[in-house]
Amino acid sequence: MLKQIEGSRAVAEAVALCRPEVICAYPISPQTHIVEGLGEMVKTGELAPCEFINVESEFAAMSVAIGSSAAGARAYTATASQGLLFMAEAVFNAAGLGLPIVMTVANRAIGAPINIWNDHTDSMSQRDCGWIQLFAETNQEALDLHIQAFRLAEALSLPVMVCMDGFILTHAYERVDMPSQEQVDAFLPPFNPRQVLDPAKPVSMGAMVGPEAFMEVRYLEHTRQMRALELIPGWAEEFHQAFGRNSGGLTRNYRTEDAETIVVALGSVVGTIKDTVDAMREKGERIGVLGISCFRPWPAAAVREALKHAKRVVVVEKCLAVGVGGIVAANVRASFSGHPDVVYTVIAGLGGRSITRDSLARVFASAGHGTLAPLTFLDLDHGLVERALARERLTPHSGPVAEGLLRDVGVVAAKIR
Amino acid sequence: MFQIRIHGRGGQGVVTAAEMLSVAAFLEGRYALAFPSFGSERMGAPVVAYCRLDDREIRLREPILAPDAVIIQDPTLLHQVDVFGGLLPRGYILINTSRTFGELGLAEFVRGFSPERLFTVPATEIAMKRIGRPVPNAALLGAFAAATELISLESVGKAVREKFPARIAEANILAAADAYHHVRREAQARQHAQAD
Which residues of B are less than 8 Å from A138 in CB distance? Predict the structure, then answer.
């Protein structure tokens, strides 16, 4: 059924269609409207049987999800930003225990300085924790990915993080096609757990494992993630057959067939890049974009295949590995050796900085001319940076960096960008 | 694609206006994308919301930098925010005020725009009369429907009903209708003046 609704609402309805039995969430910022919507559905009885547990922190949210999942319940939670960091220890535990929890991360920046806006730093910080990470380009894909995520998680006994851009998607009203309960039930069988805590048949889960077997535990975790690479394309295809649209999968090509320049990106910015690509194609540029839908496990073979004829690759990413550069770019480089010749990293949209077609077209064009720096910060205000550096040179007591920059910027209310 | 930028202050329903506009367009079979300019929400702070309309899927997520229409919910923003930034020469301007463009000191500025696409409407006064609260968003959507003829007043009403409980919705629909007819009358008066 077609609906014009907010992204968070669309995801809440989709999660409800997946018949979760336990939803636990810390309701204070940073949080999304997703759990608010689900909380209402549980309260009205629209979503039943389901227990909504208001916990005292994000750490507790993931801990309750772990307990519920271990007891055989289909468990769901959502968080963002600092909330994800606060639950980090339990996030690793969920993966190490092999519990098929599904969590939405409404991607946001991480402080300090305080910033509530969108980028990918939160989920990127947890990229190696053993969860599968899927990235949504649109709200339609976000809701579809949740339906796929429960199936994927439960089949592999691995937790799945569905990453969707905070605000840009969560707060956007756009058209979505909401599937019926019958469609979702047909695609997603009831949870049949591999391991269950049952008082009648007691077992230990998460006990100490020493050097004699710890490596093997991790190896099996890795093997399961690698298995996901084989299964995800088939499930995306099955989803396509059942629901009539393409969502998920490992990667998505757009006009890459004859492209000399291929842009690689994750999340909602892929849409803006597609429009940029179309405009540049009209001017005769051979450019395309590769969207990464599945970031963990990393689809190295699919990336290699998609990029094999490209002369240059421009990775646009919303996270900075401080002291290194790009995280996605490093993964792209590791996917092949020697070819293509050049991989550029463009750090963009940090802390909610707008990513515009004009700015993207400019960096893509300079990549084509060979003038783009290997590591570029899209629309960085160099003047502002210079003033801060000059201040630091002038006195050892130049004060807090962020506040100094803000004073230089002045009033921001007058800016649209 | 037709792009609308809505300026107002926290508490005036700016974001809701963009959302309702997208719903109205959706109900008429179009694609629509509404999103706010995100910030720490607080009463009275300048707020911007965006709405794109198209006949095909909208992929663009950048803020609206070159709008086809600007709706200004609070005229005190005229001197604080670059509300007309990037507005296309054939763009629509709709300002919530009981004054004229001349009285607002905008006569010189609007000279480059199409006069038949410039409208003021006393949406807050209408809202106070119909709703009893200074929330001009639904009224401005009614005015927008009359000014651009891109969406019908009926669709605005349906969108308002999706967003608000029945009693509040009906009051807002009356406000939207008042503002719609205000703009229609103004447009007709201009046509007659031209004909003379």
Answer: 59
